[in-house]
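Q: Could you write out the predicted structure for this multi-component system? I'm mainly interested in how the pieces pack against one another.
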Amino acid sequence: MDPSPTGNPSATRTDAAPGGPAAAPDAPEPGAAPARSRRSRWLGTAVLVAGGLLLAGCQLPTFGETKPVTTQGQDAIKLWQGFFIAGAIVFLIVFGLITWAVLRYRRRSDAMPRQTQYHTILEIIYTTVPVVIVLVLFGFTFVTENEVNALPTPKMSVTVTGFQWGWRFHYTTKNVTVIGVELQDPEMVLPVNEPTRIYLESHDVIHGFYVPAFDFSRYAQPGIINKFTITPHTTGTYRGQCTQYCGLYHSLMRFRVKVVSDAAFAAWVSTHHSSGPATSISTAEKQALTNSTPGAHTPNVPPSTVTSTATTNQTAGSTGL
Amino acid sequence: MTDVIAPPAGGGGGALIPGAGTDHLAHPHEEHGPSGLMKWITTTDHKVIGLSYMITAVALFYIAGLLALGIRVQLTTPAGTFISFQQYNQLFTMHGSIMLYLFAGPFAFGGLANYVVPLQIGAPDMAFPRLNALSYWLFLGGSTTMLLGFATSGGAADFGWVAYAPLSTSTYTPGTGEDLWIMALVLTGFSAIFTGVNLVATIFYLRAPGMTMFRMPIFTWNMLVTGILILIAFPVLTAALVMLFADRHFGTMIYAVTGCHTVTGAPDAHACGSAVLWQNLFWFFGHPEVYILALPYFGIVTEIFPVFSRKPVFGYKGMVFATMSIAALSTGVWAHHMFTTGTVLLPFFSLMSLLIAVPTGIKFFNWIGTMWRGQLVYKTPMLMSIGFLFAFLMGGVTGVMLASPPIDFFVHTTYFVVAHFHQVLFGSAVFGGFAGLYYWYPKMFGRMLNDTLGKWHFWLLFIGFWVTFMPQYILGLHGMPRRVASYPAHLGWQSLNIASTIGAFMIATSFLFLLANFWVSWRYPVPAGDNPWDAHTLEWFTTSPPPHHNYTHLPTIRSERPTWDYNHPEAPTIRHGGPSGPGHPNGHGPIGSGNGGPPGGGDGSAGARQGVPAS
């Protein structure tokens, strides 16, 4: 399909293949030559398989990682696929060399092995080839990093606030606020195919905003507002979770992201937007957040609310938060 | 032709150490001063201090291992009902803290290095013996202080081994256990700094005649570089901890951000500390620390591969420079722990981190080249070292992935990272560390460890290691965050977690074999002799255990393998395989400037020219 940035790392890695078997620093022994060609064939096969996978482009598996539902995640996954293949090839070559040495050179006699210590050309090869590999990997990293971190002018923005131990999603321009009450997962609703700017911050300690299906995470930190863009391209509900350890109930600090069609999103906003101009946080809500310190919580609290700021105030007030 | 190291002139040839007290020479095994418990308390002998360090560190390793089992049992069920969340948070905090601060580092630079480095360079003791004793007592005091956290009403520290501010400030973790944790690390921090000073001074100034820098064993080289890294990294940690303590008790607001919420808009800049400052300071310590924990173990396996392959280290000088490159790069990669903070220059730290793969790769080829065409003998130390190779290979490859910010974004603080750093740290500190223990135990006690029990230990450990950590990679990719005490049941993580727990119990079982081995060697001693492995370096030239000031006489030191040269005059080191390599066994002319010159005249290595006069 598209010219995947994953093509070259493994292609470069194949340059190392001749250097690998040549790692024999000593004089050849009987039987070594056929073994070397066997290994060359084996390496050749591995490289062909990897190349075939690369040509398949989009057909590549995600190698265990969650299938991305955002354009940014797709870029990151392509890089991951490239790193995985390059890493697997390097791993297999070195693994093969170690295994070969361990199996082949078991002591069989008292004959003294040659006491060789240096092999200059070999040393130059195994120093320069990794440098080249690393530089290629860095090149693709640099490109992908800029794609993932790009900040196009957003049509919509959401301010996400982490607190012990929940999340608050504030739709700045739409007067909608979703606040999770402790141990109940709040839901952030996003329109599909729309770049959404997220402003991420924390009310107390450091939290981690992580949605596995976005293949992305970022810290929510007090005193720092992090900005990033997500462009979901598949509708559905995806789980999210705090990844940065943040105290007692860190394990339960979860949320959901629901990606819906434009029409459904507009309907959701009209149901939930508050009547008055509620651009800043309300007193009761501030109270709710300020009280979220250790000891102020019990695990038994009512469910989260997805509502306007006005209703949230009531709910927060009624739960005694 | 080849540069051949001349054999020693006479059968029993050797040089007396200048300056060594003759009374000790006359009665090498007769020690002065108190005996029994008083000897252990009052000693300044690097060997006794080294043993104290190792015994303490291994005991702490067993304690932290038990904590890990508690963590693993908790995660066998999604609901996690084995222990409470609070206890769980204490367990992973203390598991990490003990393993990293109190076991992996002190075992290597306080224990093995203390014992082995003076022996390897032909020195009678460390440069500052009393400072050395102080280091140990600070370490013991610090370790006890940290463990005492469990005795406080609020329990031990529970803010993770990294103690991220502002979670670690008094607003969120006001307990005494946290204060004890901080003071414990201040104490062990000073202990590490003093040991670093001692190592560097000893290696620079106490080398025996002929022991030029480029004839030092790789283990000693790595301990020199580790010592320098300690001096760079630990003062930063200690200072950061003192500031954290001030924040907690004196209201300094260095990291604390209480009262400067951004929820309502712009932060109140006047009242705000910087939470991310802690991360910068911590990881400026923390990443060199990773190599402080790894380099000694690289050194250990680099001693073991040549001995059990009956060959010299392949690419000795390249390896020394690789070690120095790792150390230099390690001071410029701290922010790769902070890619997701959004506050660091990603390309710089990404490139620096990726580049560390190059010197590490060089080491791999050195180790493989050392085994290549050798005569490999699979005693326990060698098996452990090979286990280290496989473990570190996997951990290294995943480390390269983590050095790329877009990949790090989605595996950061997941079990992928947990698996990665256990494979590198467990790979080095456990496989490498216990390889060293099996290797040097005969030298320390004059008796062997049982090889059959050792093999049981190795195989259970090796299989358990992969069973424990490979599922964690998959869990991390599926999005399981680290440091969680429970997880949703419907995500299908339970079976992988159970697999990981089974592996952890295999590892725990393997360490029962080590205890059994200690018991067998204590109850049914098998004498080791001076050099049971036909080893290469100087420490195997003296008796087992060595006399009070280590040596009554030394062999002529003309290469990095003085004991081997002494025992195997027929098999000198071939300095140069030559570009032609295989097929031209004689290679090219010598690199060295002369053979058989006076000790210290050397083979023309850089160390011979810049060598500091040995005392």
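A: Regarding packing and overall arrangement: Chain B touches chain A through 106 residues (CB under 8 Å).
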